Amino acid sequence: METRIAVIGAGVAGLVAARELVARGLDAEVLEAGARPGGVLRSERVDGFLCERAANGFLASDPRGAVPLCEELGVATAKAAPRARKRWVYARGALREVPLSPVAFARSDLLSWRGKLAVLGEPLAKPPARSEPDETVAAFARRRFGREAEASLVSPFVTGVFGGEAESLSLRAAFPALADYDARGGIARSLVADGARGLARRVAGKGPGPR
User: Fold this and answer.
1) What is the pTM of this model?
2) Alpha helix (H) residue ranges in 113-175
3) Going along the chain, which residue ranges are E strands?
4) DSSP letter at 200?
5) End-to-end distance of the chain based on CA atoms, in angstroms?
6) What is the C-alpha separation between 45 and 32, in angstroms, rounded?
7) Torsions phi, psi of 179, nearest 5?
8) Which residue, 168, 93, 159, 98, is CA-closest to 135?
């Protein structure tokens, strides 16, 4: 009996799913309500600047992720140029630079002092328990780092990578390492513990240790 499959939505996920189904010999048809494929992804030139309306990058660490797919499709990939190191978030009516170092974080106007203290207090504070076994990225960020950090740092980052909303994305699916760190008692504490174990392994000559 012939199997026909309908894929709802011609975003990146839908197109990749349909491609995989066809590669496996199945009859797949993509249904899209909009006038163009690509979902929320869109590039536009505005006053000479290239503007990405949703995701503008992807994580390269997943061996089954975007990089192998781009290579298979013949799409060129490249790391961001050094001049693109500065990142900006539009918050409270102005573009504000994203701090990428402790000194920049202290001087940044992206977060208030209360917001900064909530982030810095993550290793010491005991956050509320998770309301669900698999919470959203936004719920995790609010619980661990506070509402300001979630709105001004985490949510813009998630949109830039996934083209989705932090309120809808599963933490376990999008950032499994953070979910594991959270389950172990905290982000900063787990990173320090992993670093200490890695150093001990190197001293003992047993390899590089956890990454």
Assistant:
1) 0.65
2) 113-120, 137-145, 147-149, 155-162, 171-174
3) 4-8, 27-31, 43-46, 49-52, 88-91, 94-97
4) H
5) 48
6) 25
7) -60, -40
8) 168
Amino acid identity, position 132 = E
For the chain, how many residues are written? 211
Dihedral sign for Cα 183, 185, 188, 189, please: negative
User: Cα 33–37–41 angle (5° rounding)?
Assistant: 110
In tens digits, the chain (211 residues) has pLDDT values of 577 899 999 988 899 999 999 999 899 999 999 888 888 788 888 888 888 777 766 766 666 777 888 888 887 777 767 777 788 888 888 889 999 888 999 999 999 999 999 999 888 877 777 767 789 999 999 999 999 999 999 998 888 778 778 999 999 888 888 888 888 877 887 777 777 666 455 444 444 444 3
**Token duo for residue 112:** 């208030």
Residue corresponding to tokens 């539009």: 90
C-alpha span between 203 and 131 (Å, rounded): 41
Q: How far apart are CA 146 and CA 128, in angstroms?
A: 11
Token code pair at residue 157: 């980052």
